[in-house]
Design goal:
heterodimer, A: about 325 residues, mainly alpha, MetI-like fold, 2 domains, B: about 525 residues, alpha+beta, Dipeptide-binding Protein, domain 3, eleven-stranded mixed sheet, 15 helices, 19 strands, about 30% helix
Chain lengths: ~325, ~525
């Protein structure tokens, strides 16, 4: 197990290297230049040239790449072209909001998807099953921005229960934190609930007629216990995969939701940095997202062994 | 067992939602009955929250000319001289200035006991260091620098700016409200030198001082207790008496326009900038929202004069006759409150600079004439590229309508939209475009007209001895009559040579809570304004 984990962690190195080469090329080949963007339309050509030199953008691109790579290896992601802040610090300050909204969204997803799937399987022979599953799939079909607008209009403007936008860090009070995050987390969750519920239901339906389930029933165990203990736990593996990918995606930032609720998270950081051609920040954020994907997938794989004792990695 | 656990969790969450609702009702925006309260008596204290449409790159008002930088920074920094409510130049940190007979030495006396936010008193040495930095990094300072020989402090409160030759636009440059000559402590000016100021270097003399900047989220300023205010109550603009009524000024970054409006509606913000003109009439019926409008420069179409076909004046004339600006304006801005048809280089509010004379070619829509001019010209039917930034809805609409009108008289036109960053880069190369659509913010001197700086991409590589001469005469002009005459000549030059086509003067729409007493000018200023509870 330990060996496997180390091997997987080592595989991060080539992945990150490939990602960094691709990102660096894409970012630097995109037209636009931070010097023009900082100085604006009134700038003289001399000022632009001077700033380019300060930022090191006048060097050949290969030199720039190796300079950057050298720093990355030593753990230095560089400085923002705009604020001169360390990229590490910038990412650290934006991960909090993204992590918060992800956490809450996953909580809401599980809170709704699991009962819906259980109920659907329990009522699998009635009309309630297709109805429940169709309703939970509605969320997948609604565009995020539109659903967000509807929710804001309904529950923040017309009936002012929730704030229109904003983010309060957890450190400033858990209640305010939660209160500001409920709408955005709900919108993010709505898209995924149906997916998870369906995944779970299909997995459970497969298990529901297996021999071991029948044996369990034959032993006289109540149907609810059969469902929870024998059926539900066997449907968890494919669901864990889906949720893992979901968490990785959400931790990379949700641009639309962050913009609509003014949450200063990873998504808005990435899009702002792209508009500003803030090369070090774009590269840093994408490397960070790539690392998250690899790590979350590793966690999911390790979780398999826990969910299904038959799986061994040694 | 597990089922009941889920049930409990669901009920728990619902309860939490309910509680949240109650809490909001208690602490939320004050009820309607309070709206009718008198606004007359100024109230001190509290936090004033502003929703900004974009985040400034830096708060260094000297370093860049961006409007959003200006709008936040002029609460923190001040200049030696500044524009008053009528856009006339008045002293700010300075007490007065005088010149010698040849007008080559400007002696500026500072007000005594003007304090920086770090507690130090402004001395002539601080001003000299600020001027030196301004000469290096400000686009306006760089231009002025050509005339400046040296800047010397002659005592603690007096300094001299010695010129190589008379340059009468110097005061305009010193009082400019973009890339401004803001006064900062000498040690900071020297330490920052040609770099933008770091957060810890944001030390000015203004009524609010810098507290914190949480990037992507908010900029917080606080009331500066020891602010040395001027006493003139009738100057307005950026000078005269300034009272900071709020304890705290928060600029929140809210990029989505719908959120800015909803936030103001629900009392989350007190002031929100840059609202779409489409909402102007909707806002009329919103009970607790007031509209704030102010001039915002003008939109233009600039031809590339470095290559065919627009190097040919006849083609430019044909284009001028092809454009029906009234139709363009109606299609682009909709409501007439948001544009005015005016061919002058400055806005009517700028009484010292405004001259209408010589702008008769501004509205010259005549498709027949355009067709015949085009037939006589060098234009041989090659496609014309109109480049614009698709980040701005207005430029996009102007380009679309212009395309249609140009095609009617026989131009072949292609639209070429880019994202702003790409646009800025492509703009610099003459091969990339034939026409660009872009807006220019309000300027306060002919020297600041970026769209007419000769032989640059901004002016479409305009090359004109006549304009160069007019600018030179402007620098040497002594009386306001002489200046008026030069301004008229400038209008005539633009009219005859058509270096660009002015579309219309634009008006910008901000909104504020009706509890806020506010005096609209040019951009948002939150001193001398207060919020009644």
């Amino acid at each position: 197990m330990l060996q496997y984990t180390i091997r997987r962690l080592l595989s991060l190195v080539p992945v990150m290297l490939i990602v960094s080469i691709i990102v660096f090329m894409i970012v630097h080949l995109t037209p636009g230049n931070p010097a023009f963007l900082i100085l604006g339309e009134d700038a003289s050509a001399e000022s632009v040239a001077q700033l380019e030199q300060q930022l090191g953008l006048d060097k050949p691109i290969v030199v720039q790449f190796f300079d950057w790579l050298k720093n990355i290896v030593t753990g230095d992601l560089g400085q923002s072209v705009y604020s001169s802040e360390q990229v590490k610090t910038i990412i650290a300050s934006h991960i909090g909001p993204t992590f918060s909204v992800t956490l809450l969204a996953i909580f809401i997803i599980l809170l709704i998807a699991i009962p819906v799937a259980l109920f659907a399987v329990w009522q699998r022979k009635t009309l309630l099953d297709p109805i429940f599953i169709s309703v939970s799939l509605l969320g997948v079909s609604i565009p995020e921005f539109w659903f967000a607008m509807l929710l804001v209009l309904g529950f923040a403007v017309t009936i002012p229960i929730f704030p229109v936008a904003g983010y309060i860090p957890f450190a400033e009070g858990w209640f305010e934190w939660l209160y500001h995050l409920i709408l955005p987390a709900f919108v993010l969750a709505a898209v995924e609930i149906g997916l998870v519920a369906r995944m779970l239901r299909d997995g459970m339906l497969e298990a529901v007629n297996q021999d071991y389930t029948r044996t369990a029933r034959a032993k006289g165990i109540r149907e609810s216990v059969v469902l929870m203990k024998h059926v539900f736990s066997n449907a968890l593996i494919p669901t864990a995969t889906v949720i893992g990918v979901m968490i990785a995606g959400l931790l990379g930032g949700a641009i639309i939701i962050e913009t609509m609720f003014t949450i200063p998270g990873m998504g808005s950081l990435l899009i702002d940095s792209i508009h500003r051609r803030d090369y070090p920040v774009i590269q840093g954020v994408i490397l960070f997202i790539a690392a998250i994907y690899v790590l979350v997938n590793l966690c999911v794989d390790l979780l398999y062994a826990f969910l299904d004792p038959r799986i061994r990695y040694d | 067992m597990k089922k009941s656990f889920y049930l409990c969790t669901v009920i728990g969450l619902l309860l939490m939602l309910g509680l949240a609702g109650c809490a909001q009702e208690g602490a939320g925006p004050t009820g309607k009955e309070e709206e009718s309260q008198a606004k007359g008596e100024p109230t001190k204290g509290g936090t004033f929250e502003v929703a900004l449409a974009s985040e400034p790159d830096t708060l260094d008002w000297m370093y860049i000319s961006a409007t959003v930088t200006r709008d936040v920074s002029w609460h923190i920094f001040e200049t030696l001289f500044a524009l008053d409510h009528d856009f006339a130049i008045k002293p700010m940190i300075a007490e007065k200035y005088e010149t010698n007979e040849e007008e080559t030495v400007y002696t500026i006396t500072l007000r005594e006991d003007v304090k920086f936010h770090n507690g130090a008193v402004v001395t002539a040495a601080d001003v000299v260091a600020s001027v030196e930095r301004w000469r290096k990094i400000s686009s306006i300072g760089q231009a002025a620098s050509e005339y400046i020989d040296e800047v010397v402090a002659t005592s603690d409160t007096v300094l001299e700016i010695r010129l190589k030759e008379p340059y009468n636009a110097l005061m305009d440059d010193i009082a400019a409200s973009k890339s401004a000559l803001m006064i900062i402590p000498a040690e900071i000016a020297e330490a920052a030198n040609e770099q933008p100021l770091l957060p810890e270097q944001i030390v000015g003399t203004g009524p609010y001082q810098f507290e914190s900047w949480d990037r992507g989220k908010e900029i917080v300023l606080s009331h500066f207790e020891e602010y040395s205010s001027r006493t003139e109550t009738d100057w307005g603009g950026l000078t005269g008496e300034k009272v900071a009524y709020y304890d705290e000024l928060k600029f929140l970054i809210v990029k989505d326009p719908q959120v800015r409006m909803n936030g103001l509606k629900t009392g989350l913000y007190d002031y929100a900038e840059n609202i779409s003109p489409d909402l102007y009439e909707v806002l009329e019926s919103s009970p607790n929202i007031d509209r704030v409008t102010y001039m915002n420069g003008y939109s233009t179409i600039t031809p590339n004069k470095a290559k065919a076909p627009f190097d040919d004046l006849k083609v430019r004339q044909a284009l001028n006759h092809a454009l029906d600006k009234k139709t363009i304006a109606e299609a682009t801005y909709g409501n007439e409150a948001f544009y005015s048809l005016d061919g002058a280089l400055f806005a009517p509010e700028q009484t010292e600079l405004y001259s209408e004379e010589g702008t008769d070619q501004y509205l010259a829509y005549d498709p027949e004439k355009a067709k015949s001019l085009l037939a006589d010209s060098n234009y041989n039917g090659e496609p014309i590229t109109i480049m614009f930034s698709n980040d701005n809805e207005n430029y996009k609409k102007i380009a679309q309508v212009a395309k249609q009108q140009m095609e009617e008289v026989g131009f072949k036109v292609e639209l070429d939209p880019y994202e702003w960053g790409t646009y800025l880069e492509r703009w610099l190369e003459p091969e990339n475009w034939d026409l660009v659509v872009i807006g220019w913010s309000t300027r306060f001197s002919p020297n600041e007209l970026g769209l007419l700086v000769l032989d640059t991409a901004r002016s479409g590589w305009y090359d004109s001895d006549r304009w160069a001469e007019a600018i030179e005469r402007w620098g040497a002009a002594r009386s306001s009559e002489e200046r008026k005459e030069i301004l008229t000549e400038m209008n005539h030059t633009v009219n005859d040579e058509l270096p660009f086509f002015k579309v219309v003067n634009e008006t910008r729409l901000d909104i504020k809570s009706d509890k806020v007493t506010y005096d609209s000018w040019l951009g948002q200023r939150h001193w001398n304004t207060w919020k009644s509870e």
